[in-house]
């Protein structure tokens, strides 16, 4: 079986890189379609468009409607084709960038991702998560190439709400936990090839960086500061996690996240990373990892304010039917939970979800953590 390493062609991170966007993007095309939601247009989209126009790049502005669904991808594809754009720029969060990837693939044009938060590893990957128009995970789309350019302006990201940075940390902390399981089971990565040593090493390095610098980076973000710790965590959230998951593989944590999207309620107000956080602890429970490792993750999650109990994820009143539905979706035939080094049944997932809650409550009591 082949080993395949996937990564963007160029990754550029630093303060005020938006000012140099024309220089970088101008090498990809002369007619850009910029895709961003209404809020992101105010935060960065208009400034980016102005910078591109100053570099003599023609700009088409398109508002993203919020879900990376088949209907939204089709709508933006038609607009891009009509405009005859030769580069598309996805600005904002993961769903916007995933939609831009799909459009670039449909039209075979160049692709730039410009995240305005460090909340996801979507900027670097060659995969889109496709949702229904109502926000439930529907499928994945895989592409033949990763983004041609990733631009990460850390001054913009430092001005984003800290919750987004924390969400990205949670998503990135799943990277090594899942890649390690793939390695142990000799499973495949998302595109069907064997994982690479490089991808697994990058995934493990992401975990090291996040345990070393996350708390300090969060304090910098709260004060809108770009410090070395903040730069390191942004890179871990975006580049290391992105390359690590794609070249290292996924397992139970993200499958459990997908299970969470199948039920109604306030859990939908949580971010992707917040739901993955709970899925990561659940995977550690499924694996029966040592108390030292489990406590290490729980301590950091509590320091960062991540959800670690059923109450935190709005499932304290969930019925057995709710848990069973989550577990059935998480263990569907196509899900990455089957990359675990042992067979996982729906009942195992239910027990792990409840087991996390029971153990964390005990941990908090022993260590003096008080519920708000």
TrEMBL record:
<dbReference type="InterPro" id="IPR001670">
    <property type="entry name" value="ADH_Fe/GldA"/>
</dbReference>
<comment type="similarity">
    <text>Belongs to the iron-containing alcohol dehydrogenase family.</text>
</comment>
<keyword id="KW-0560">Oxidoreductase</keyword>
<protein>
    <recommendedName>
        <fullName>Alcohol dehydrogenase iron-type/glycerol dehydrogenase GldA domain-containing protein</fullName>
    </recommendedName>
</protein>
<dbReference type="InterPro" id="IPR018211">
    <property type="entry name" value="ADH_Fe_CS"/>
</dbReference>
<dbReference type="GO" id="GO:0016614">
    <property type="term" value="F:oxidoreductase activity, acting on CH-OH group of donors"/>
</dbReference>
<dbReference type="InterPro" id="IPR016205">
    <property type="entry name" value="Glycerol_DH"/>
</dbReference>
<keyword id="KW-0479">Metal-binding</keyword>
<dbReference type="GO" id="GO:0046872">
    <property type="term" value="F:metal ion binding"/>
</dbReference>
<feature type="domain" description="Alcohol dehydrogenase iron-type/glycerol dehydrogenase GldA">
    <location>
        <begin position="8"/>
        <end position="154"/>
    </location>
</feature>
<dbReference type="GO" id="GO:0005829">
    <property type="term" value="C:cytosol"/>
</dbReference>
<dbReference type="Pfam" id="PF00465">
    <property type="entry name" value="Fe-ADH"/>
</dbReference>
<keyword id="KW-0520">NAD</keyword>
């Amino acid at each position: 079986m082949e080993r395949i390493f996937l990564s963007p062609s160029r990754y550029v991170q630093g303060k005020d890189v938006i000012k140099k966007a024309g220089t970088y993007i101008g090498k990809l095309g002369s007619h850009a379609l910029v895709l961003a939601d209404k809020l992101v247009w105010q935060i960065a989209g208009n400034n980016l468009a102005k910078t591109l126009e100053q570099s003599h790049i023609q700009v088409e502005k398109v508002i993203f409607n919020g879900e990376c669904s088949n209907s939204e991808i089709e709508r933006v594809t038609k607009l891009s084709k009509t405009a005859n754009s030769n580069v598309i720029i996805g600005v904002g969060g993961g769903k916007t960038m995933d939609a831009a990837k799909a459009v670039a693939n449909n039209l075979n044009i160049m692709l730039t991702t410009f995240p305005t938060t460090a909340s996801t590893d979507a900027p670097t990957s060659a995969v889109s998560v496709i949702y229904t128009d109502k926000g439930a995970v529907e499928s994945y789309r895989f592409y033949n190439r990763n983004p041609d350019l990733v631009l990460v302006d850390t001054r913009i990201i430092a001005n984003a709400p800290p919750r987004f940075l924390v969400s990205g940390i949670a998503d990135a902390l799943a990277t090594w936990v899942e890649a390690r399981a793939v390695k142990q089971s000799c499973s495949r990565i998302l595109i069907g090839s064997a994982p690479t040593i490089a991808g697994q090493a990058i995934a493990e390095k992401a975990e090291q960086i996040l345990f070393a610098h996350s708390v300090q980076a969060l304090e910098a973000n709260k004060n809108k500061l770009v410090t070395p710790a903040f730069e390191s965590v942004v890179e871990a959230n975006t580049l290391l996690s992105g390359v690590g998951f794609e070249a290292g593989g996924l397992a139970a944590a993200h499958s459990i996240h997908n299970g969470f999207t199948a039920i109604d309620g306030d859990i939908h107000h949580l971010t992707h990373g917040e739901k993955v956080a709970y899925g990561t602890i659940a995977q550690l429970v499924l694996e029966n990892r040592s108390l030292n490792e489990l406590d290490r993750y729980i301590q950091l999650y509590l320091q960062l304010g991540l959800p670690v109990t059923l109450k935190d994820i709005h499932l304290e009143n969930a019925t057995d039917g709710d848990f069973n539905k989550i577990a059935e979706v998480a263990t569907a035939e196509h899900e990455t939970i089957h990359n675990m080094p042992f067979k996982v049944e729906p009942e195992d997932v239910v027990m792990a979800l409840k087991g996390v809650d029971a153990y964390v409550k005990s941990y908090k009591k022993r260590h003096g953590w008080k519920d708000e």
